[in-house]
Design brief:
about 180 residues, alpha/beta, 5-stranded mixed sheet, 8 helices, globular
Length: about 180
Amino acid sequence: MVKQNIMLTRPIYYDTETTGIKPDKDKIIEIAAYDPVLDKTFSSLINPKVPIPKESTAIHNITDDMVKDAPDFQKVGKNFIDFCSGDIVLIAHNNDAFDKKFLDQEFERSNISQPEWKFIDSLKFARKYRPDLPRHSLQHLREYFGIEANNAHRALDDVVILHKVFSNMIDDLSMEVIIQIM
């Protein structure tokens, strides 16, 4: 009997923090990812080359001073692609309406070819498969599953929480099954 080496899709949880909420106008100022299979993290501030509005800083606490010496998306985007190599699926909370739109826009602006990644929106998953819950925000799900609080609205902290929340929501389903049902 010949054993086949089956490569399973590896989940990578990611999050972005931005200068605002409009992908065509605003920019990513922080991106983070967590690969639980390889137990590796990726995190970088990004210099958006525009001032960060006070309203945005009030949410994520990232200031102009913090990003002034950070690399631009051209460099960070290439490093993010390297981090996300292989057969992966990128998972973000509110991915379809927010994070993916910003990623797409930044890759296009930077003239970088974005890989043909698969994506899962954990917010859509929660709404579809956990309609019994009154709210589906990441922090509400964190509380519901009894996961310890963290520094919400900082990208790396959010992806660590997202991994724990999503692992609780999916129970023992494989990534392949989740990709098929989404």
